[in-house]
Every structure is written in structure tokens, then in C-alpha cells.
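User: For documentation purposes, I need each entry recorded in a consistent format: the amino acid sequence on its own, followed directly by the corresponding C-alpha cells. There are two entries in this batch. Please keep commentary to a minimum and don't merge the entries.

Assistant: Recorded as requested. Entry 1:
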Amino acid sequence: MGLTVRDCLHLPSLREAKVVAGHKGLDQYVTAVSVLEYAKVFAMADDLFLGNELIISAFTSVMDDVEAQCVAVKRLHEVGEVGLILYYVGYWLKSIDKRLIDTANNLDFPLIVMPENAYNLRYNEVITEVLERIFDDRKKEQRFVPLLLRQIANMRERQRNISGILRLLSDRLRYSFLLLDQSGREHGLATWPMSLSEEYVNAFRDCADNTQASFPFCFTLHEKKFEICRCVFDAEQWQGLRLYAMAERDALDAELLEQAVEVLQTSYSLWRENLQKEEADDLIRIILNSQQERDAYRIAGSFRIDLKALRIMWVLRPRSILPDISRETVAAQKQLVKQYLYDNRKTAIVDAFDKGVVAFMNDDKHLEVDEELANEFEESISERYPDELLIWCGGLDSILDSRKAYMLMEEYCSTACVIYPYKKIFTLRELSFAETCHHVVYNNAAMKEKYLSDLKPLCGHSDETDMLHTLTVYLVDANQNTSKAAALLHIHESTVKYRLNKIGRRLGYDIVKMPAAFNLYLSLSIKRLTDYYANQSDA
């Protein structure tokens, strides 16, 4: 049993919908349906998604930004969702761009389009029919263990952790779950509803910590009666794990809790590596997955780690994220980063995250020391991993700063790669600049035209291509270093100087003085980005 995306397409509300991409993913299981109105990646944190959801959206927040649409689809795939239903195409979203279709096909992520130019469509028709089928299936099949294990097996590796599994159980049973080990250390928490207030969560934790309590345990908060049950079980390499379940009075079912324990025991057996991570390193998941900050500080405190001192974040990732990056490769890279930072006496936490490696470390009192450390590390791995990028973010004074930096990297690293094709190390400054260029190209046609017009004196000549390419490499790629520019252009340094002099005469001003240099830098970056997107559309 279990409802698939393909099954959903036979429902009356979806019979006229068309699958335009991702046909190979139609047999994924659907366990929920959800609406996504704001499709910007920085608002799409992991803990907002349950996995195996069918997502409904009109892409109104990104209707004029194809790149952001593609990034949103990648993000939905990354957090384990199983398909996207697009509404109001022809009204809000004018058309489905080929780049969006290619992205969905590459990920085998079903992209389903409701009838175009139809303004009388309602989300609730699909939501009602899909949920009714899901609930009917659950009533017919009381034993949910096999289905949940299949869902867990299909999870992305970084989501396959105890908190993610408890989230699945919580969504299925509509209970809040808390898992502790024998010593009382927390392994995971998932609340129902997900927005359960901190006051109720604290009451749940307090009851679980009460060694004198007998279970089932009942308590009242704000005139609402709750019941907590406890299941003690053994799992792979763990003895005496304690699973606590909380729901409103008389809602807990002993048989369902037994199945929840079975799911956890089997998960520990099958995916021991994912579920047995060092908690010190696992702080990275907690920091970047937008979970409660107090959880991060609590776990850090148990390992005597001062998170506020870890003001630098490194992200090691390939220039282009491919679906087939092996776990072995990422694990080897994690060990390289860990050993390098240890050898250089850095206090650091390091872990695999997404399809790369993330490290948080303390900063040196001299900025140049940290710059040199990043440069030396990149040089040390460039031969073994020529496609790897190192994103170096400093001055992170809070968990919120770290999340914002990671989201900025996630959304605009690919844009930065277009603007800086030769760079192997990006900082927050390059990522922020890439964001600026992206918004000018996609969201401000008048500003884009203004910056491109600054380059018109170099256009229309027989040497237009050489002049623009030389100036771009000199200013954007070589940081006004003629020797480096000559090496990148594969020409003699004197040829670079000759061309730059010619460019200066045509423009009528000194190209290396501020603010002219910055305006040219921005104009050339916008042109490089514009040309790239144009070529992608034509491909």
C-alpha cells in the first residue's frame, strides 16, 4: 500500500494536469501535501519540510526569476519532497522555462502543471482529495512500519537522522516524540504540531527528566490535559533508550507506539553510521538546519565548546553539485579538513553536510593568518579535487549569522561561479556581490541596461571581443594584475598593457581609479552573467 505521485494524477482534481518533467520520479510515495507560497531558498529551511510531500505553488515570489525557480526545485528535491504542482501558469508564471524543465528532469523530480490560463482553480481541491486518499490508506493498513522504513531509505543522507525519523513518526501519528539515552542525553525531538510553543516543549522535557514520575504520566497546562507514555528499548550499540510520546489525554495508542519503537530499532540497525554521529560534529546540522538555538548551545556546552568563539565557517563543495557524489568522497574530504585544522591548532567542528563539508572554527587575531590558512588548504587539495571550491565566511557572531551565510552560499554560489570562473575560494563579499548582480540582471531591466551601456564605447569594433574579454579578466579575474591577466588570457603581458591602454582611450578615463574601476567591475560582471544566461536559454 501507499499513495504514489502517479496515483495522485488519477484523482479528479489532477486529471487535466500535465507532467512536464521528472517522469522517472512518479512512483515516489506521497505522505502529505503542502503549499509553498514563498519560494526563496533562504526561507526554505529543512525543518519546514517533512519529506515525501507533494508541494503546491504558483511561484508568485519568483515568477520573473527562472534561476530562483530552478534553485527552489533543487531545494525541494534536496529536502526530500516528491513533486511540485504549479498553478496559474499563464497568469502569474507566464510560461515554463526550458531550464526549469531540465532541472526537474535531471533530478527525476516530477513537475506537474495544472491547466494553463485557468483562473478558477483552487488549491483545496487537490489538498482535500490527496489527503483523503492518504487517510483512507492509513485506516486500511494499520501496520505502518514497512512504509516508513521505505520513506527513511529514500531520505537524503543528511536528513536520515534521529530527528528526521522522529519527525516522520510525529507526522504519521500526530504525537510529540522525545528520545533520550540512559544518561538522559537527548537524541532527538519532534513535536506535533510542529509549531508547538516552547512552554509545552519545556513541560514535555521536564516530565521526561523527572526520575520520580510513573508512566503513563498526566498533566494539565492552560486547561489542556496531556498524557505522556514511555517506551524503553535497546538498539544497535545502545542500551536503555527511552522514547517519550506526548498527546492530548486518551489519544496515545500502545500498539502504534510499539510500531514507532520498531521503526527506531530497525533504523539504528540499518543506518547506524547516520544515527551514531559524534554530537560535537553533529552541531553543524543543528546550527544550519534552523532548529532551536538552545539545542545547539546545550549540546555545545556538554562538549565544552564555545560556539560564539567559532566565528569562521568553511564550506568545501564542488563547483557544480552532482547527484552522484559518493559518500566515500565526502567522508575523505571531511577527514582532510579535520586533520588540516587540527594540524594548524584550530578549535573546530567539522561534518559532512548536503553534498559537501562544513567546518566552524575560531578566528585568529590577525586576519591575514586566516586568509593564508584558507589559501594553503585550497592549494593542498587542488590536485586531488580540482573541481572543489572553498567558501570562507568570517565575522559570524551568531547562529543566525551562520545560517544567513550558508543560505546566501546555497542560493548564489552558482551565480558567483559564473562571475568568477577562475576563483577557487569565495568569501561572503563575492557571494553578496553575486546576489547584487543576479537581482540587477533579473529584476531591474533599467539598471541592467544602464550598466551595459557603460561598455558601449568598446562595442561595434572589430576587436570588440578581445577588448571586452581582456578588460573582464584584468578587472574581475586578475584583480588588476597584468601578469596574472596575461597568464589567464594566454598572451604576452605587453599585449595586455597595449589593450588596456587602447581601452582607456576609447572609454576616456583611467580604468583603475575609483569609482570608475568599480563601475566597470560591476558592468563587466553583469555582462558576463547576462551572456551566460542567454547561452543557457539558447542551449
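Entry 2:
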Amino acid sequence: MIESTIVENTAKAINELYDAEVKIQDIGLQKTRKEFNGDFTIVVFPFIRYSKKTPQKTAEEIGDFIVSHDEIVEKYNVIKGFLNLTLKDKFWKKFFLDNKNNSAFGFTKHFDGKPYVIEYSSPNTNKPLHLGHIRNNLLGFSLAQVLTANGKKVEKVNLLNDRGIHICKSMLAWEMWGNNETPDSTGIKGDHLIGKYYVMFEKRNNEVVNKLVQRGLAQEEAEKESPLLLEAQRLLKKWENKDAKIVSLWKKMNAWAYEGFSDTYDRLGVSFDKFYHESDTYLIGKKLVQEGLEQGILFEKEDGSIWADLSNEGLDEKLLLRADGTSVYITQDLGTAQLRHDEYDPEQLIYVVGNEQIYHFEVLKIILKKLGRTWAGNIYHLSYGMVDLPEGRMKSREGKVVDADDLMDEMYNTAMAMTMELGKIDGFSGQEAEKLYRIVGLGALKYFILKVDPQKNMLFNPEESIDFNGNTGPFIQYTYARIQSVLRKAVEEFSYNPAGLINIDFSFIQKERDILRIIYEYPAIVQQAGETLSPALVANYVYDLVKEYNQFYHDFSILREEDHNTSIFRIELSVFTGMVIKSAMGLLGIEMPERM
């Protein structure tokens, strides 16, 4: 990388000019800001203590040294204490020729090491996936793509939360008020049908609680004494005791949910290497809890419940098993973590889970360490912010959610309306148009969500996301399609041969250099996204590239350029740009249209 050469020559300059030694890591090198001339900038201020001169003079002396000792640096300019270096055309020409046909540009070759296990999605089988799950799925899948691009071995896993009191609420509601209806008999997707009964339980239970409060019970007591809730708890106890009738109902309703989830995953374009079930892993968790109790690491209260004392860690006590022997949420996470360690021995076990569970994962790691699992330090919680709508937060229990399926329908319909209005399907067959609506609608949804830093809360506005201008998926997709149109016309009008030789024995204009400089940054962006676990870096990078290319496209001729060699170069620069756009969007799980 040219950066290391520049840094080394800077260190050499300081040594020879000022008889001082500086560490390579102490030399600040950054890309030159857009408003200034140059490719790379050195921050000179730290070196004036060696030169005993002004920042301007120090920068000039270091700049003169670098230009005279580095055959790649053409010239420099100084803005206050910042030394801006401009590279020679021969560097950019070599970079272009070496990489323009490299489909793996920006990616690191796979190395043999421990895998990175990424858990994402992890739905409850009592309701369909909603907008919050979409952010979770898109983050998890994109992160897997980014880590793979960084040469990591990745295992994508999904824990299906298929047991617990919430599942029993849906089961009880269906038993009481379902009249044996099924997805086939109603035409309702399985996960949506189960969600209907979860909402129904909560509504009926709230009515019961309100009546108890009216009779004089305190709110908290009424909630605990609700006959519906008590019956759901009895159902859970029967399930853990393997009651045949309850287990049969549980299997039937979960099968409905799994089929519904599978359809949604396929449509969303995410996948998994392995599925885990809480109904299996909670048993491993219970064994760990029993092990901790026998070793005196955990303790039992008078009612028979088992707890972890976390007071030495500045936290409170944590319930691990209820008095009736049934497990809680963290019980299965203990078991799942143990199971994945035994199966993969991962370099890192990454949980993609909302930021409301930060405390949960802190406790999980502490308890595992108390149980002697030194690998608990490899657990990383990638917490992400909540997704709100213009009208406010979603509430699953009240049925006030945006279902993932409904949202994808809306995105498809909006994409159809906007592409038709803008005339972007002229000459398309009906099947081609439908494919374009799907690609644009999903691209808008995915990009709008992934361009936001994972840790930030975000407001999702479907109409803003599908705009064909600005920092949106459709704008990037349209630019890519434009480049493919340029290539098709080049083949038709010039008999252009992508595999042919190219003559670039001429000077680049600044805008061509600007595009090449952004493309040059792609490998570093992919690496940084992997290190920080943030696909948002890739999303915003590709927007910057697209924005720069569109300015070039509007300001300069490509196919109508008088000089044939320049025209061929600009065609190939466009193709190179398109290749990087498609690569980056692929890391986000976004498909690109060949025309629109």
C-alpha cells in the first residue's frame, strides 16, 4: 500500500532533517479533504517540536524531502499545518490496470482459523417477524458477508425461541378461542395466525386484570393472579413435563410458525447455516445451573428457585430457575453458548440483538465465567438501536407492529408506482418489470436500514427510502444500471471488447483521479467494516462513489469523447466503478438491476 511508503518516507525525512526518531504509528496520514488539492495529507503539527520551526516551514521541508525521495509523489501543497501530497498519474494508471478486472477486488483471501459464529434473527414462535426483526436480519446477514470478505470463516446461526410462557399464551388462546382453524382453513400465513392468538391472549388477559383491579386488587397482584396467566403457566409446566397433548399442540403450532418464517427469510434474501431450538438448549442450560448449584457458585432460595449472586460485580441477583423448576430466558442462553462452544470453538461468538438486552449479555458472560468457562470472553453483543416509525414505537402485545411481510408488500407497491411514474420500465416485459419492482423495493428497504450505524436508533420512512435521488438504494441501483447501459452501447457502437488492450498514455483529469481515489479506498473500507462490525461504513462508502461517478457522467463525455483512447478508458473506468458498486452492495445483501 502506498500509505505505508509515504509514512516510512515521512519518518525518514524527520530523522534526516531534524535528527529525530518518530514511531510509524505516531505519523498521522489521512486522505485529503475534498475541498483541497491532493490525495493524502500528513498532519505536521506533532513534528514542530523536532524542527523548531513554524508548521508551514516544517511542512515544506518534509514535502520537499518526500517529493525528492518518493518516485510516486508528484507534488505537494501546504495548508497551515497540513501537508497535502499528490500522487503521479503512473501510480493511478498501474492501480487501474492491476485491478480493473479483479472481481475479488477489496476482499481478503480466506485463511484457516477459528470461525466467527453470528447469531441473528432469533424470533419467538408466537408472532410473525416485524420491522425490528428486519433490521436484525439485515445486520446479521450483512455482517456475515463483510466478515467473509475479510477472509473469516463465518457460521450464520438462528436460535428459534420456541418455548416459554409467551409461546404458551398463543397455544392457550388457540385452544380456547381458535375453533381448530389452521393456515390452510383460513388462508392466513402460519406465523401471522399464531400472532393473532398471542395478541388475543394479551387483550383478553388485560380485560381480566382490569376486572380484578376494579374488585380491589392492586395492579401488580391482579396481573399475577389472572386466571388466564395462571393457566398459561400451568401449560408451560405441563410442556416441560412432556405432557403428550400439550407437546403435540406445541409441535403443530410451531410448524406453522417455521413455515411462515422460512417464506419471509427467502423473500428478504437472508439465510442461515444452522438452526438451534430453545426447546433443546434450555436443557443444557439447566444442567449448567445444576452444576453451578452443586459447586456452590449459585444458590437456592427457600422456595426452590435458583439464583446467581452478582453483587461482587456491582449487579444484583439473577434468577436462573423458577421455584417450579421451569427455566427462564437466560437459562437457554447459557446452554446455547455452551453448545456452540463445543461445536465450533469460535474465535468470536457474536449476538446481533437489540440494545435493550445489553444487561442480559453482560450477565450471561459473568455467569459463564463464574462457571469456569474462560471462553466467555469471546462473546460479543452487537447491540443495535430500535427502529421507530413516523407514528412512534411498535408494540407486539397490542398488535401495533409493522409485519415484515406487510412492509415488503408496501415496498414492492411503492417501487412499482415510482418506477412506472418515472418511466423506468419502458421496454420491459411483465415478468421483467415485476423483478425490477422486487429488486428496487428490497434494495430501498435494506439500504435505508443498513446505512445507519448499528448502535443508533433510527426512524424508518418507506417513502424516503425509495427516492431515486439522494442517499438511497434506488439512486445507487439506478447508477449501476446506467453504467451497464453505457457498456451495452459501447459494445454496440464501438464493438468495444472488455478483454481488449487499453492505451492510457495520457494524463487523467481531476474527476477521473477522484473516482480512482475513492475506488482505491474500497479494500480499507471493507477491512474497517469488519473490524468495527459496521456494514454502515460500506453503505456510505458506495454512496460517495456513486455520487462522484454521477458528477463525472454529467460533466464529461464517455461514448462521445473525441479521443478514442480516452473514450475507451472512461468506458473501462465506468465498468470498474460498476464492479465495485455491485461488490459493495452485495455485502449489504442488495441485488443490482442490469437495466432500469
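Summary note for entry 2:
Residues 2-87 form a domain with the Gyrase A; domain 2 fold (CATH 3.30.1360.70).
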